[in-house]
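User: What would this chain look like folded?
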Amino acid sequence: MPRKSHLRLVALFLAAVALSTAGCSSGDKGVQAVGPGPQNVDVPTFSGPWADYFRSAHSTAATDLQRTILSDGKITDQENQEVRNAFVSCMAAFDIDVELQDHDSFKSTTAAGMTDAKYDELSKDCRDRTSGQISGLYFQINRNPENRDEFAIMAECLSRKGLVERSYSAKDYAAAFEQQNFPFDVNDPRSRACSLDPLSREGAIP
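Assistant: Here's the prediction, encoded as structure tokens.
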């Protein structure tokens, strides 16, 4: 039977901005919720530059495995791969073949008769029940370990790569991002390189 292909490419910078601007109670910053977690589950005390994000992800985690992985305030390569593999298995149960890609992206194929709306529904459900917020957080931490200001590191990278003037600031980039009107070609490979690795960590990003 003919099959339909899907390609999900994560935009790391856009995801990072979503992380940095999503609000939590008590003024905390945090990742976007995927659904309510169980009642009366103690949230560990987290520390470090990503503590608020771990706290939010833990309090909204959908499974015990997600909470266990998040509980120590770090996500190992093995843990991330475990939940990503679980996502593949979940999708396979619906006759959706998934091929994992770099940077929390994946390719998938479905039966031709499956609608995009149904695919999106199944994909979201599988992600919520397997990787949840873990993979996105994992890649963001590897991309920006100290959780530096996203607009600042992007402006610095774009300047370093010659896409903007050296005087280009975080404020300039924030304004351009809000208006989605950039003084450079967003399809330039150097722009994508900044989105994926703004700190030029030379392959540190998985």
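Confidence is low (pLDDT under 50) at residues 21-37. If you want, I can go into more detail on any region.
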